[in-house]
Structures are given as C-alpha cells and as structure tokens.
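Here is one such protein, fold included:

. . .
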Amino acid sequence: MYSGLLIILVPLILGYLIPVKNRAALHLVNQLLSWMVYVILFIMGVSLAFLDNLSTNLLTIFRYTSVFFVSIFAVNLLALWLLERRRPWKSKYQQQELPSRMRMALDSLRLCGVVVGGFLLGLTQWHWLTYAGEASEAALIFLLVLVGLQLGNSSMTLRQIVLNRRGMMVAVVVGVTSLGGGLIAALLLGLPLKTGLAIASGYGWYSLSGIVLTDAFGPVIGSAAFFNDLARELCAIMLIPTLVRSSRSSALGLCGATSMDFTLPVLQRSGGLDMVPAAVVHGFVLSLIAPILMAVFSS
C-alpha cells in the first residue's frame, strides 16, 4: 500500500536534503529538469499506445480532462474572486509590453507534440517499447531527486514564505479549492474520490502529475491529469493580462505551481515587480505540497 508513497517521498526528501553550493551544478540541475520533462512525456505517450480498446480510452481521456479542468478552474476562479473582494490587492502599476502569448502557448503545446510522438512510436508495437513502464518509474525517481534538489537549494527561506501573506493566502485558497473541484469532478464522472483528489493535486505541474498518476492509476488517468494541468497553464497565459486589472489574486492563483517559473514573466510584466515575491512564494508552496498530496492520494 505504501510502496507508491515511498517511491515519491524518499527521492524527493533525499534531493531536498542535499546541499548544492556550486552555481554551475544548480544550473545543470535546472537543465536536467527541463530535459526530463520531455523524456517523461515521451514515455507517457508510448504507454498510451499499448492500451487496450485504444479509441474508447482516448475518448475517456478527453471526457475526464474536460470535466476536471472545468470543475477545478471554475471553483478556483470563484474562490479567488471572493478573496479579492474581501482582501483587495491594490497596485498602481501600469502594464509593460507583454511577451508574445501565442509564442508561450505554442511552447506549451510543443509538450503535447512530444506525447503524440511517443504515442505514434508506440503504435509500432516494437518489443523493446514494452519496457516503458519500468522506464517511467526510473525516470520518475530521477525527476523527483532533481525536484528535491531544486526546492532545497532555492533562495526561499521559511521566513520569506511565512512573511509574504498574499502569496500564502492565494496558495492556501488554490490548494484547498482545487481539491474541492477534484471531488466534484470525481462525483460527476463516477470515479473514486481519491482519484479525483490525486488529479486535482497536480496544481498545474503537468510533467509531474502525468508520470506520477500514470504510475499509480495507469495511462488513462495519467494522461487526463497531464492535459488538465497543461490546459490550466495555457488558460492562465491567455487570461493573466486581463484578470490582473480586476483581480490580481485570480491572475496569480490560476497559474498554480507554474507561477514561480513558466508564467512568472507574464505575471511580472502584467502586474509589476510587487507581484513577483507573492508569485514565487505561491508557486513554491504548491510545488512543495503537490508531490506529497499526489503520493498520499495515489497510495
């Protein structure tokens, strides 16, 4: 029962506890994380191709993704709007010229292309591709060690996290309401509640949620988790410049765990420098709890 939990937590904690002082080594860790995202998504695509009743399962993935995305996104948006009304986050900052949202969206969609590439290769049914399951588990362990290294050697201290009240508030709201949206989706789809909670625990971290839940529940649930989290990032990129004018909390919260990396430039240019500390804290907290919650709900 606890083997899946240990597979996730042990390498994560191990990486977190290893100090890395050399800046070149930290840069290598970040580079390896970027490369591992593509490796893992490619393996996930291969695993999809080996599913029985493939066409039926693809429709199931689409249905699961749609229901989870709408449920979680809607609950998040409502809760963040209420937070903004009760505790307004004001700023006199004027928006800078934004990076091309279309280009950023295409960068995200490129990840879908990697999954499709793995899927097409998997359709060849080559014998050596049957080891995709073992490869995904090894890749997951390596990825989690790298994630632990990155989190443990980040510049964030506990004091900085606790003192940034806005980042913490938004993270708590997103963390709790996402789980609520996951429960709603699970009930609508007739899935076990723990499965719904596990999918909702990705918080936009598609590379991790896809491989962890594929390992725990199979390629259908893993793929639904991946596409749900990827859709969250794409919508956040498109909505941030508009939302930041009326609800800065919503603009930040919808980014999920990506607010400290991929969507940070859009947040900074749309909302100003005072949004950066909250975005980093928000993303750090969600990145820290996401693998733990996924491990608990998938064990």
The chain has a mean pLDDT of 82. Residues 54-86 form the longest helix (33 residues).
